[in-house]
Structures are given as C-alpha cells and as structure tokens.
Amino acid sequence: MNAIIVSALMGVVMMFSGILVKNRSAVTSIAVIGLLILLVSNILNTYGICSIQIDTKGLLSFEKFGMFFNSIAIAATLIYVLLSGKEIENAGTYVADYYALIFFVLCGVSILSSFNGLLMLFIGIEILTIPLYILTGSDKRNLKSNEAALKYFLMGSFSTGIMLMGITLIYGATGAFALGMGSLAPSTGLLMPSFLEVAGVILLFVSMCFKVSAAPFHFWTPDVYDGAPAVFTSFMATVVKAAGFMAFVRLFDNHTNILGPSWHILLGFVIVATLLIGNITAVFQQSVKRMLAYSSIAQAGFMLFALYSVNDLAKEGILLYAVAYSLATIGIFAVLIKMKDYTFDGFNGLAKTQPALALGATICLLSLSGIPLTAGFFAKYYMLASMVKADGSIWLVIVAVLFAAVSVYYYFRVIQAMYFKEGEAAVSPVSTAFRIGLLALAALIILVGIFPSLVLNWFYF
Amino acid sequence: MIPVLLILIPLVTGLVSFFLKQPGTAKNWAVLSSLVTLAVAMVGIFFLPANQLAYDASWLPDLGSRFTLMTDGMGKMLCLLTVVSFPVVFIATYKNEYSNAHNFYGLMLLSQAGLLGVFLAADALVFYFFWELALIPFYFLCSIWGGNKRIAVTFKFFIYTFIGSLLMLAGILYLYFHSADHSFAIKSFYHIKLAAKTENLIFWLFFVAFAIKMPIFPFHTWQPDAYEQSPTATTMVMSGIMVKMGIFAVVRWLIPVFPNASAHYANLVIILSVTGMLYASLIAIRQDDIKRLIAYSSIAHIGLMCAALFSLNKTGWEGVMIQMFNHGVNVIGLWIVADVIEQKLGTRKFSELGGLAQKAPVMAILLVVMALANIALPLTNAFIGEFLMFNGLFQYNMVFAAVAGISVILAAVYTLNMVQKVLYGNTVATTENATEMSGNVQLVLIVLTIGVIVLGVYPQPLIDLTKDTVNAILVK
Question: What interface predicted TM-score (ipTM) does this complex get?
Fold first, then answer.
C-alpha cells in the first residue's frame, strides 16, 4: 500500500514543484529524493515495518512477490533518472510535469503488482498508460512525436476496449471480478467453463499481449518507441514493460486451466511469432533506436516463457529478467540519447572518442544478448530452465535458443560499429558523473551476472 | 588452490594489462604473467599431491551449481599445453607491433583464463561459463587486429560457435533436471540414465556445439577464414589450444554422459570426420596461402582425432591424447614460421615466395622439421599419435581406416609442396633481400623442435599422464 500512496503523493508534489521551482536541475533533485523516499517506504513495507493499512475489501492483495517487484521498478526508475536526468530536463517545456507523470506511472505499477480482481487490473493499466500517452507526445514541436502519441493513444484505447469487453464477459459469466476462476465451475461440479468465460479470457489475453507488445499485436511498438523522445522510450521499454509482464503473470498464474490444452498451443504460437518477428525484423533496421524497439519485442518473447511454464523458477525468472533487462536497456538508451546520430553508422569509432561510453554500452549489449557473466545470461537461463522443468517442451527451448543467436547479430552490430569501424561518432557533451554512473551500472550488471542469488536471496531473505 | 591460481593469474593480470598504456610494458607484463602461470602449473602438476589439484566452493546454491575444478590426466596435459603455449606465442611474436598493445595482451591473457577454466571445470555450469569466456576475447582480438575481411569473418565465427553453445546450454538444462540430485556436477551427469530416444536427441545438442568448435565437416566453414584473418598470435592460440576444447569436451562431457548414443552414432560421426579429412586435404593442395594451407591441414588432423575418439577403443584414445598435445606444438611451430615470413616479406603466397633456404638456412631447417612433423614422419612426435589413432580406427572398422589413410598421403603432398615452393628454387623479387629470423624466434622454434623430436622418440610420459582418463572413461 505504501508504494501506491507515496507515489501518488509524490506525483502531486512534483506538479506543485513545477509552479514553485523554476530551476530545472532542482526539479530533478526533488524527483530523485522523491524516488528515494518511495523506495525506502516500499522496502519498509516489504518487511512489514511502517506499512499503511487500508481495508481494500479484497481488491488489492499485497504479497512479497509484488512488493519486491515494486522495489525493482522504483530502483530502475531511480537509476534511469540519475543517468538520464539531464535529458528529461531538456525533453520539453514542463520538466516537473514529466516527473509527475513518471510517479503516476509508478503508482500504476504498484497497483498492477498487487491487484486482486479484474477491476483493479483495469484501473492499474489505465493509470499506467495514460501518462505514457502524454510522455510520448512531450516533444510538442516534433511531428513524429505527435504521430507516435496519437497512434499509441488510438491503439491503446482500442486494446483497453478489448480488455473491458473481456472483463464484462467474465463478469457476465461468473458474476464476479475475482481472479480465481477455476473455482467458478458450474454447479454440476464439472470444471466446464462457459463459452462467455472462455471468450472473456481470450479477449483479456489479447489485450495483455498488446500491452507487452507480443506478436501479432506488436505493430504499435516500433513506431511509438521510435517517435517518442528517446529518453521516454527508455522508460517505456523498461519499467513499464516489466510491469506489464508482472500483471500478465499475475493474471494468468491460475487461469491456465480454463483454456485446457489449447492454452499452451495459443501461447506457444504467440511466443514463436513474437520471437520470430522481433528478431528477424530487428536484423534489418538501420537505426539503433528502432532496432532496440524490435529487440524489446524479441525480449518480450523470452519473458512470455514465464507464462508458459508456471512454476517457481518462472516466478524467480521473471523478476531476474525484469532486473537484467531494465538495467541493460536503461544503460544502452542512456548512451543512445547522448548520440547525435541514431543510426548504426552514428556509433562508428565511439570506442576511440568515448571509451567509457563504449564499454558501458558493450556490457549492456552483451547482457541483452545473454552472454554469460552478465545479468542477461541468468535471466535467459531461468526462463529456459523453467521451460525444461515444466514439461519438456524442448522444441520451444531450441527455437528460443536459435533466436537468441539471431539477436546476437543485431546487438553485436553496435559493438562492431563502436570498436572495429573507423569514424568520428558525434556525441553531445558527457559529464564525468555520467561516465561513472554508466560504469557503475555496467559493474552491477556483471555482479548480478556472477551472483544472481544477490537479487533472488533478497526476494526470499 | 592450484587450479584457482591457474585461472586467477591470467584473469587478474589480463585485467591489469588494460591499464598499462606503454606498449613495451604491456608486452613484458604478458610474458611475465604467462611465465608465472607456467611455473605454477609445473609445480602443481609435477610436485604436488593430487588432492591439491581439485577445488570446490559454493557458488549458486539455489541452482545446484558449485564452483568445482578438477584435474585428471587429460586436464593436466591440456593445461600443460596451454601454459606452455602462451609464453611461446608471446615470445615468438615479441617483435610484432600492435596498436593499443595493452588491450591486445589483456585480451590474450583473458582468453588464457577462459581456456584453462574449460579444461579444469568439473561442473557443467562453470564449464559453460568458461566456454563462453574463452570465446569473447577471441571475438575482439580477431575483429580489432585482424586482416581486411576481419569483421565479417569473425562475426561468422562468433555466431557459429554461439549457436553451438546455446544448444549445449539447452542440453545441460535438460540433463540438470534429469540428474538424481539436481546438480550440475560432472559426477551426477555421469550417473544419468536417459531413455534411448531422448539420449539420442540430447547427444546432438552437445555434439553440434563441440563439432563446431573442433571443427568437424560440415560445421567447419568458419575456420579457414577465421584463421587467415586473425592476427597470427591469436591464430596460434586458436588452432593450437582452442580447437582442443572440442576434442576435450567430447572426452569429458559427451561420451561418458551419453555412452549409448555415442556408440549409436559412432559410424555417422566417423563418416563425417573422414569426409572432412579428405575434403580438407584436397582443398589444402590447391591453396596458395601458407595460413590457409595450415588451416585446412588442421581440419584434417582434427578430423582424424574425432574419428579415433568415436572408434571407442583404448589404442585410438591413447593416440588422441598424445596427438592433442603434439598437434598443438606442431601447429604453433608452423604458425610461427608463417608469421616470420609474413612479417619479413609482407606476403604469405607461395607464388610470391621461393629460395628462402639460401637466405635463411636456420629457418629452413626448422620449417622442414615442423613440416615433417605435420606429415607425421617417424621420429617426429605426430607419428606415434597418428599411428595409434589409425590403429584404433582400424580395429573399429577397416574401411574407415583405409579411406582415412589417404589423407596421410595427401598431407605429404600439400606440406612438401609448400616446403618446396617457399624454401627451394630460385629467389624471387620478394625474397631477394630476406634475412635470417631474429634470436627470440629461433630460440622458441629450437625449443619446439627439441620437443617434437624428444616426444617423437619417447612419448611414454604423455601416455602415462593421460592413462587414468582413458581407462576411467572407457571402462564405462
């Protein structure tokens, strides 16, 4: 509960600080302090100290898994603000408002990690996405940014409509917004879900696929990620995406039985399509930013494994994946924002002019492609392990592994440009603090890559 | 503690090397580090009791993986090969100049740490980690300091091996969940009993990874290009040591874990290996480039080792053990000469060389010895190994041995052809002003030549060293 209340309050604080504080970097400092308060209050809540208790009539349930995820999301946001604060300040006119929106997104994240009914799921999703529509369009004078925002808004509201329809059908069939549908079998005692219920679950599935940009509902992702100011793309691709998965896993954790064996066929199709489209399309991109958009689709394909194999490894895995993927993506976007030219050629020779940036970006890219000794390896490892443990659908594992090899192709193109090609990469001024921050992030990625239990033990403590 | 030291010394010195901005300092630092590793390995292998050569520490308790290192005879021998090769490579290429030398030597030392880790690991996850750790430095070494086509070629090499590694990872995971105590330890893997059908499937997940690394036909296409384009110091390590990772992994991780599948597919694997031998030998005859010739000849030699492994008998295995070491020594010797010629004359093409024996007699003698060892002439070290391997293959199936035997003749054709065109005949424009090679290279080559002849006359120490591995695994 702490996270929801504090993040909403901090959002309001940020809005007022926009009126009172004119200095842009002071606003960033306030946001950093706000995030720290939020993080501390959430961690205290996790350990049961100083937690605010409100009777939510069973609409929200706070479990350790969800609260731990909140900590991850807040910490990732903190790292993101520390690294890219300067760019947020320069993204548009209303700095404080952007931070306010980020806090509201975090409020949505905290609801999504603790919802206990479809109603709260819907509210959480809305609180999460509406600020994002605004952030996407924050570069008001840029036509692409406007286009992206409008596209995102239209497509997003459409998928919200689908979700509402699904919720309505489920409500019609069962008379409740509750999650545990297995228990709602007809009075005959047979576990035969009604037609409406199945249709509702499938509609919910479709709309969730849209939110996490799983194929074939991914078409908005490249345009929105490409059009939005890079600094906000970074936020969308990390914290928001991970939160979407959190909600997805929570939602379908105990729903799989309703669709019977066809659930695995459906999900298997989505996973393979997502991996295929994400990876293959990323290979052909010329812009690193757009490549990262497609790669985020590809990574979503890997994260969907947690849904396929619902077991303890999958739960740990999705947390570790959220950490690894968020850290690496925040790092690579932080470097990307500094570049003047977002194409692959724009990175040529970066290692000569900015060795620290190149090293940081390389470690992030190695982590994204899942090379051992980086956090990304154990993230992928857990996903694959949970699959092997689940039921031995080893063919899906082999498909995933082959696509992971494809992903090496486009991630390493950036490394090649930075280290092996001649050129003068144009970079906006980089402060020493940024360099240190980036290298610290890289060190963190490697640390988690050697001792993933650091993250997971915290979860069990 | 010795195995940990063997990995830590190159790892730490390699990382330190990135900060040594003076090219000369980095060079000496690398030589020093490799000599220290050599000394530690010598002490560990020859003077300390066996219990000092294992290490076990908690690493990932939740996953059932421990940081376990062990050394059996084969591990000792390959560690020995690695620690001997690195100083040899560094000293032989001491005069070569690299841009950003500190990074070059840093990456070389990191690759040494990875290679030693692979040879020592006794836990599948640790093994996988080092398997990859050995790959990454090679990727950067070849891509930064290689020839003109380096980026595309190295990328092909990297993606090839990475696909293999990932398939192996899937296999490792499968075995992990089927091991009795849910652990990655090699002992647990040895006790896994799988149904025949699954065993055959998982066998391929592992075998493809190792076959790409060795490389075995038809997975070999990355190799000639990668050897040709890499800086020669890196090529020496790749062909001398890295490809042994594939053979080593088959002995330690494939055949004992999948005994039935190995026997089941032995014919197929041997056919692939023998095909590769003949194919590579025939291509080698048509080469005009020293580096490419050695690369193809290396495929042929590795093919024989793989075929002898899958003949699954003691004679063949003893041959493989000896040959793993000797092939490393010989191929590094050949690369050193190739590097000298390229550094001095700026070309590696036979058509632009000739008459070097008149200008550089010492080099000519040493090259001839190395070339004869490449053909496996009696009294050179390769003879014993090849003889035992052919003997093993013969015991398994006469036809295979006969067909594989053709490659020995072909080896003589292409190797002697190279010797003739490079060393004899009249001097041409490029070799007009050739001089004798420098002292450090002579020293290294003389040491290697002594090794070639001593091990050729008296190979028993190598057989004794590795006999425990051969017996332990073949008994299974």
Answer: 0.86
